[in-house]
Design a protein that fits this description.
Blueprint: E1 2-7, H1 11-26, E2 30-31, E3 40-45, H2 50-70, E4 73-78, H3 79-84, H4 88-91, E5 97-99, H5 107-117, E6 121-123, E7 145-149, E8 151-152, H6 163-166, E9 171-172, H7 175-187, E10 192-196, H8 212-220, E11 227-231, H9 240-245, E12 255-257, H10 265-270, H11 277-290, E13 295-302, H12 309-322, E14 326-331, H13 349-372, E15 378-386, E16 393-397, E17 403-407, E18 416-424, E19 429-432
Parallel strand pairs: 1-2, 1-3, 3-4, 4-5, 5-6, 7-10, 10-11, 12-13, 13-14, 17-19
Antiparallel strand pairs: 8-9, 15-16, 15-18, 16-17, 18-19
The structure holds 5'-deoxyadenosine (5AD) and iron/sulfur cluster (SF4).
Length: about 450
């Protein structure tokens, strides 16, 4: 059967989509591109913020029509499936299956049961030793970059966040298993690996298996891997050993995604984040000292319950101090089951929007400054493909994660090349190969 997976949400979800695709292909199904031509449509969902949930329900409206017209098999997977459990069949009675994130390994079985006679499948167990964690998407990985899940779940219970409820408790994969998968990826030509987990810094906490920094050291020694990244880190769990890895492990890229969420200590405490703004800044300083030139990106929430002007100014100050290369910023939305949903002091939407737009406007300027500061430097670029905008241009990323577009031979695709940066823009850099004639 021809299947299409529609995906919402984070890199973890991108990878889960890859894994489901791989399981389906292993069972003889074929990946399609267009929902209208598909026999099976699977929607992999996210419920971290209200917007993601709204987008999902509006897509389901469209799919309901398709189902009526073409009898398309429909499945829902991921965090909304987990959050709603069996209730999802009341809300969306036309779907054939619903699988939580720890149950996506059952996707082929669910499709086949639906095809055999509209037998409905649902699975929402937390699955200790989760089989979903160890699926290797061997036939859907393309190109030179790959994700590897090293742990799942989160035990932090930040007061605004639904993840601990829908992704369950932390569970790490065995070090030997992760290393074997990366070796296999390297053999197949993957040169950049991103380790995935809701909270990678607590990988193997409380176990005598490899610690996170030890895992990074082992990966660093795998022949063929040139770049290593990881998401997402929690500031409170950045250990001195991890900081020491930056600038010493040759593959570990000079960039880190370190969500700060707020610059106000009062709000950070209400968020249950487990650090103060000065502790956050101390970690940033330690990382900068160990690895000059390291690029910081982050997540931040504005309009958290009780956030007043002073709290928001503290967030603006923190952003000014760190000078992030980029920040994903969101307006707080109340999520079911979370502690913050019960907090008083709702920020009026107009004020929250105003704060978000002030924050984003300033961050855009800082990002542009940081991109311009790269003009005149020579950087290593991993060429990912031809540029979307121009056929004779290539596009790739620096080790710090910035997009670089430059003229070059398509033979350079998938190669590591040195590029001179000639211009910094808001979202990308323009480069030139050093030996370009006529410079
Ligand atoms: N409201 C707004 N943003 C949220 N995030 C998580 N939960 C919420 C929420 N309830 C943001 C955080 C997190 C990112 C993945 O999504 O900034 O780091
Ligand atoms: Fe959510 Fe906090 Fe866990 Fe991140 S660390 S997934 S924000 S609970």
């Amino acid at each position: 059967m021809r299947f299409v997976i529609e995906n919402f949400g984070c890199q973890m979800n991108d990878h889960d989509m890859e894994k489901m695709g791989s399981v389906l292909i292993d069972h003889g199904h074929v990946a399609g591109k267009d929902i209208d031509d598909a026999d099976v449509v699977i929607v992999n969902t996210c419920c971290i913020r209200e917007k993601a949930e709204q987008k999902f329900y509006s897509l389901m409206g469209r799919l309901q029509h398709l189902r009526r017209k073409k009898e398309t098999i429909l499945g829902v997977t991921g965090c909304i499936a987990q959050q709603e459990k069996e209730n999802i069949f009341e809300r969306l009675p036309f779907i054939d299956f619903s699988l939580g994130p720890s149950n996506i390994h059952l996707v082929a079985e669910a499709v086949e049961k639906a095809a055999a006679g509209r037998i409905r499948t649902s699975a929402f167990g937390d699955n200790g030793g989760s089989p979903s964690l160890v699926i290797r998407p061997h036939n859907t990985r393309r190109g030179i970059k790959g994700y590897v899940t090293i742990m799942k779940g989160c035990d932090n219970f930040c007061s605004y966040c639904v993840v601990p409820y829908v992704r369950g408790r932390e569970e790490s994969r065995k070090g030997t298993d992760v290393l074997a998968e990366i070796r296999e990826m390297a053999e197949r030509g993957i040169v950049e690996v991103t380790l995935l987990g809701q909270n990678v810094n607590s990988y193997n906490n409380g176990s005598d298996d490899l610690s996170f920094p030890e895992l990074l050291c082992e990966i660093d020694a795998i022949p063929g891997i040139s770049r290593l990244r990881f998401v997402t880190s929690h500031p409170k769990d950045i250990s001195p050993d991890l900081i020491a890895c930056f600038g010493t492990l040759k593959t570990l890229c000079e960039s880190i995604h370190l969500p700060f969420q707020s610059g106000s200590d009062r709000i950070l405490a209400l968020m249950n984040r487990g650090y103060t703004s000065s502790e956050y800044l101390a970690r940033v300083e330690a990382l900068k000292e160990q690895c000059p030139g390291i690029a910081f990106t982050a997540d931040c929430i504005v309009g958290f319950p009780g956030e007043d002007d002073e709290d928001f100014e503290a967030t603006m100050r923190l952003m000014e101090t760190v000078r992030f290369d980029g920040v994903f910023s969101f307006i707080y939305s109340a999520r079911r089951s979370t502690a913050a949903a019960l907090l008083p002091g709702r920020v009026p939407p107009a004020i929250a929007h105003e704060r978000l737009s002030r924050f984003q406007k300033r961050q855009r300027v800082i990002t542009l400054d940081s991109n311009r500061a790269m003009e005149g430097t020579r950087v290593e670029v991993l060429v990912e493909g031809q540029s979307k905008n121009s056929a004779d241009e290539l596009s790739g990323r620096t080790r710090t994660g910035k997009i670089v577009n430059f003229k070059g031979d398509p033979g350079l695709v998938y190669k590591l090349v040195e590029v001179d940066i000639i211009k910094g823009y808001a979202n990308s850099l323009r480069g030139e190969l050093p030996d370009t004639p006529g410079r």
